[in-house]
Amino acid sequence: MVGTRRPPYVLHDSGSIAARVAELGAAIAEDHPAGDLVLVSVLKGGAVFLADLIRAIPRSLSVDFMAISPFGSDGDAGGRVRIVKDLDEPIDGRAVVVVEDIVDTGLTLAYLRSILLARHPVSVEVCTLLDRAVRRIAPLDIRYVGFDCPDLFVVGYGLDLDQHHRNIPHVVAVEDVAAAQADPTCLDRFLPGVPVPLAAHDVPE
Questions:
Q1: Is the pLDDT of residue 201 over 70?
Q2: The pLDDT of residue 72
Q3: pTM of the entire structure?
Q4: What is the Cα–Cα distance from 80 to 37, expressed in whole angstroms?
């Protein structure tokens, strides 16, 4: 039936994610063979990706965290944010890689990058697990991209649905968000220890 929404399904399984994270870590290490490197994650979604990514980078580095809160909706506020938790250490003279779980419009990330650049680092680059470029508004140069993301709601591997299911080890596509919010147990079959469900390309149309 035209317009029928499929139940949640795996977009990227844990094995594919692990392989891509290893490639991203190797690329970051190759691009930064020396110097003071710091990876910055914006809480909370990027923490899972960051934890795996730093273990895939074969060189010394440090990590730091920020927490932000938007002044309004992403579009209405032009991406401007209030910093709830700032970095613990200065970044002047250091190479910074901002680690994101997903990039959409890019407005908030562009604004955050401008804040970091004002602190005089050597560079500020971006590494995102998922790039939903179809929603992009602000021009962004994203140096490290794990996967392109279709215009769908996704959950798992740090991404949440109403603050739950961040611990799903896969990236799961949710076409009917309202139904998943009404019955979040529909996502429980993707939790750790459960056999990997059918991937997107295995789901019959």
A1: no
A2: 56
A3: 0.89
A4: 26
104 is catalytic: yes
Three-state DSSP state, 116 = helix
CA distance 136 to 78: 13
Q: Are residues 122 and 95 in contact, defined by beta-carbon separation less than 8 angstroms?
A: yes
Tell me if 170 sits within 8 A of 56, measured CB to CB. Answer: no
pLDDT, one tens digit per residue, over 83-112 is: 899 999 999 999 999 999 999 999 989 989
Whole-number pLDDT of residue 1: 42
- What does the alpha-carbon distance between residue 73 and residue 149 come to, in Å, rounded to a whole number? 21
**Token pair of 60 as six digits:** 């010394």
Q: What is the DSSP letter of 164?
A: B
List 104, 176, 188, 202, catalytic entry: 104
Q: How far does Cα 89 stand from its chain's mean position?
A: 22
The SS3 call for residue 95 is: strand
